[in-house]
Amino acid sequence: MKPQQPVKKSNKKLYIIIGLVILLPIILVSVITFAIIGGVLVGSKSTYEYKCAIIEVKKNEKAIEMLGEPMEESFYILPNIEIKNSRREVNFSTSLSGPKGSGTLRVSSFRDPFRSDFMMQLEVDDDKEVLYKGRYPCED
Fold first, then answer.
1. pLDDT tens digits, residue range 98-133?
2. Whether this model's pTM surpasses 0.85
3. How far apart (Å, rounded) are the C-alpha atoms in residues 107 and 30?
4. Which residues 6+ apart lie within 8 Å of 13 measured at CB?
5. Residue 68: CB partners within 8 Å, gap ≥ 6?
6. Residue 92 has what DSSP assignment?
7. DSSP letter string over 29-72?
């Protein structure tokens, strides 16, 4: 009669647990980071100033001449938004592209109950064109 060989224990469960302990925090931090960045980007695109600028630039003759039609805005936006009570100060830049090329739209907006300033500048290659400078052009 042959002696019984000892049963080998599998280390699969141990490797799975170690893998989860290492990978789970990395995945969790990544998801939270992307959620925060995505929230800033989506939140910035939902401001009145962003929506107004996109509407205005798409009907601006200088912008149409520089980029062509239709114009498409980029997913990315670099915002600086400060809202205190009824005072709104918003500055951002975003990429625009059209059949004739692409450029960067820079917008600066200030509004309070007494006044408003709104400026849009389009940069295509080395050409910088002020598209609009004056009162806030849109209704909320």
1. 999 999 999 999 999 999 999 999 999 988 999 999
2. no
3. 31
4. none
5. 98, 99, 100, 101
6. E
7. HHHHHHHHHHHHHHHHHTSHHHHHHHHHHHT-HHHHHHH-SS-E
Mean pLDDT value of segment 13-21: 83
Q: What is the tens place of the pLDDT at every residue in 45-97?
A: 778 899 999 999 999 999 999 999 999 988 778 788 888 988 999 999 999 99
Can you tell me the distance from the alpha carbon of 48 to that of 117, in angstroms, rounded to the nearest whole number? Answer: 14
| Of 137, 131, 111, the residue nearest 62 (C-alpha) | 131
**CA 26 to CA 32: how far, in whole Å?**
10
Q: Let me know: does 122 contact 62? Beta carbons within 8 Å.
A: yes
Residue 11 predicted with pLDDT over 70: yes
Q: How many other C-beta atoms can be found within 10 angstroms of the C-beta atom of residue 94?
A: 21
Task: Tell the residue number behind the tokens 């990429």, with chain if given.
Answer: 95
**What phi and psi values does residue 138 have, to the nearest 5 degrees?**
-115, 160
- Residue 120: CB atoms within 10 A of its CB come to 22
- Cβ 78 vs Cβ 106: under 8 Å: no
